[in-house]
Amino acid sequence: MREGSLSISALLGSYRIVRKTGVLQFAKKLGLIDRVRWTDLTPEQERFVAYISRARNVYRPLPFSAPVLHVITRITPRGRAFAPSIGWEEVVTGRLKTVYIDDIRVQGGKEFGTPALAAEIERFLAEQAP
């Protein structure tokens, strides 16, 4: 929000506890916000992300033996209770490499973190060469 990439209503709507209180629905009734939102995406994009998220939450992958490059960003949960790999070591039986890139996004025609991501992909692919 401080960077201007997230509105106040999307920030508040991203918290389930705030949505459950009904405050956002009340703000919509009063005309203070246009809609209750989870993000600043369009309603169609938001529905698609919700659909994909629900599918992700129920999917249980089978073991995977190929090398995997796992990228985490500043929004990835971190701390003592969270492994940097966020559990992928339970699925990936081949090589798992986790790298940190602060921010990866394309917004307003500007790219953030894409050169760093490209460099990590190229490095990872080179490491796989015989």
Would you spell out the secondary-structure blueprint of this structure?
Blueprint: H1 8-13, H2 16-21, H3 23-29, H4 43-58, E1 68-72, E2 96-100, E3 105-107, E4 110-112, H5 114-128
Parallel strand pairs: 1-2
Antiparallel strand pairs: 3-4
Written description of the protein model:
The chain has helices at residues 8-13, 16-21, 23-29, 43-58, 114-128, and strands at 68-72, 96-100, 105-107, 110-112. It is elongated, with a radius of gyration of 19 Å. Strands 1-2 form a two-stranded parallel ribbon. A two-stranded antiparallel ribbon has the order 3-4. The chain folds into two domains: 8-57, no CATH class; 62-128, no CATH class. The model has no long low-confidence stretch (mean pLDDT 86). It contains five helices and four strands. By secondary structure, the protein is α+β, with helices and mostly antiparallel strands.
Principal-axes geometry comes out as elongated
Strand content: 5-15%
Report the count of strand segments: 4
Largest sheet: 2 strands, parallel
Determine the mean pLDDT: 86
Low-confidence stretches: none
The helix content, as a percent range, equals 25-40%
Instruction: Please give the order of strands in the largest beta sheet.
Output: 1-2
The chain-level structural class is: alpha+beta
Distance between the termini: 45 Å
User: Element order, helices and strands?
Assistant: HHHHEEEEH
- Please, how many domains? 2
Number of helices: 5
Radius of gyration: 19 Å
